[in-house]
Amino acid sequence: MKKQHKLLVIAYHYPPITVSVNRTYNLTRHLTKMGWEITIFSAKRGKNMPFYDPVLKIHKEIKVIRKTAKENLKTRILNKLWIIPGGTVWNPYPEIEEYVKKERPDLIYVSIRPAGSIFIAYKIYKKYGIPYVLDYRDPYRCPLIFKKLEKKAVDNAAAVITVTSGFAETLKRWFGRKITVIEHGIANDLISKIKKDRTNRHFPQYLTIGYIGSTSQDYNIDKLITATSKSIYKNKIFVKLVGGVGLNPFSRIYYKKLRKLAQFKKVRCKFLKFKPYFEALTIINSCDITFSGSAYSKPSAIAGKFYDYVGLEKPILLLTKPGTEIERKVRDNRIGLVAYTVDQLKENIEKMRENQKLIKEISENCKILGKKYDWKNRAYELNKLLRQIVDKTKKL
Q1: Domain 189-372 belongs to what topology?
Q2: What DSSP character marks residue 20?
C-alpha cells in the first residue's frame, strides 16, 4: 500500500443520515483501502434527517465528528448560504480549525451541498495552506451577495469535480475553470446482499414498475402515472413509488396531487414515502422494471438511483429530452427504453409488458454495465486525483 495521507472530509450528509449519502459514503470507504486516513465532519442526525440504515456501516478506520445543525428564525434567513431546504444551518468551522491545528491533514475534500461548505475549506486554505477539492453532486450556487467570495473559493480549489459532463459544462460556464467528471457508481458489494430477482415472477399477469427518489415536480412522476393510465394493460400494472418531498411546502402540495391523480386515473400506485437506502433497494428488487424521469426537467442530470437500478439489473423506462447524456447511456448500453413524450412512455410500458424476453435481455446488459460502474473504480479515479494534488503540494 502507498504511503498513508490524511484526508479531511466535510460532508453534511453521512450515515446514519441516509439521504444523499451514497457518493461520499462509498468513495470514503474505498479510499481507506487505498492508503488514506480519513476524518469526516458531518451533521448530527436530527428530526429533519430521520432515516437510519443499519446496513450502511461506517468503516472502522474512518473517524466521524458530528456538529449539531441549528434551527431558528435567524438560521432560516441564512439557510441559502449554508444548508439544505428547511432552514437548517450547520457551521462546523471552529471544530474543523481545532482538528486542523492538531492533525494537519494533507488535503480537504468537500461534498456539496451545502454550498457554503466551500467557504470553510477556503478559509482553512488561506490560513493554513491546506489544499482542497470541491465535489459538486449537483451544481448548487450560493446567493448572489456571496458571488465574489464564491468565485475566489472555487478559483483557489486544487480541483473541482462533479458527476456528469452536463453539470461540468454548467460549472465551467459559472466559474471559468477546469472541471473533472467522476460519475456516480454502484455499491455492488452492498447490493449483493439482496438476492436479485430477475425471474419476472409476476408475468404474464402483472408488470410492476419501481421508482426511488424525490416525488417533487421535477421528477415527472405524474407523467408515469398518466402513461400507465393510457395503457391497454392499466389493470395489469402496479407502480411502487419509494420517495417523498422533504420540507418544501410546494412539493408537499404536488405530492397530494399525485395521489389524487393516481386515484382519478385508477392507476394501482403505492406511495411508500422515503425509506432507508437498503430497504428502498429491496422494494425495487421486487419490481420488474424501473422509471427515471428527472432528465426530462433537468437534461444534464443523472440521478444516483439510476445506477442502483443498473446494479439491481432492472430495465429502465427513461423519460427525457432528446440528446441528453443519460439517453446516450441507456441507448449505448441497451439497459432500457427511451421516451420523449407520455405517449412514447406508454408504448414502452406496453413493450415491456408484452415481452418477458426483452426484460431478460436488458437485465443481462445491466449486469455487464454494473461491473464497470462499481464504486471501487470511482474511488480509484478519485484516489489518483487526490494523490497528484498531495504530491504537487509537497514539491512546492
Answers
A1: Rossmann fold (3.40.50)
A2: S
Residue 333 has pLDDT above 80, yes or no: yes
Helix or strand or coil: residue 237? strand
Contacts of 101 (CB under 8 A, 6+ apart): 128
- CATH number of 5-185+374-395, picked from 3.30.420.310, 3.20.20.70, 3.40.50.2000, 3.30.750.24: 3.40.50.2000
Q: Choose among 195, 197, 201, 196: nearest CA to 356.
A: 201
DSSP 194: S
Question: Cα–Cα distance between 116 and 23 in angstroms, integer?
Answer: 19
Query: What tens digit of pLDDT does each residue of 213-251 get?
Result: 888 788 899 999 999 999 999 999 999 998 876 555 667
pTM for the full predicted model: 0.87
Whose cell is 439517453? That residue is: 327
Q: What percent of the chain has pLDDT over 90?
A: 57
Locate 203 and state its grid cell: 408475468
SS3 content of the chain, % helix, strand, coil (to 5): 45, 15, 35
* Whether the predicted pLDDT of 378 surpasses 70: yes
Strand, coil or helix: 253: helix
Residues whose CB falls within 8 Å of the CB of residue 90, separated by 6 or more in sequence, listed in order:
12, 43, 67, 69, 70, 82, 83, 114
On the question of a common fold for 5-185+374-395 and 189-372, the answer reads yes
pLDDT band at 87 (very low <50, low <70, confident <90, very high): very low
Set of cell numbers at residue 150: 464564491
pLDDT tens-digit readout, 363-373: 999 999 999 99
User: What cell numbers appear for 379 in the block?
Assistant: 474511488
Mapped onto helix, strand or coil, the DSSP state of residue 179 is coil
Among candidate residues 295, 271, 137, 296, the one with its CA nearest the CA of residue 211 = 271
Phi/psi of residue 300, each to 5°?
-90, 0
Q: Name residues whose C-beta falls within 8 Å of residue 302's C-beta, 6 or more positions apart in sequence.
A: 163, 164, 183, 184, 295, 325, 326, 329
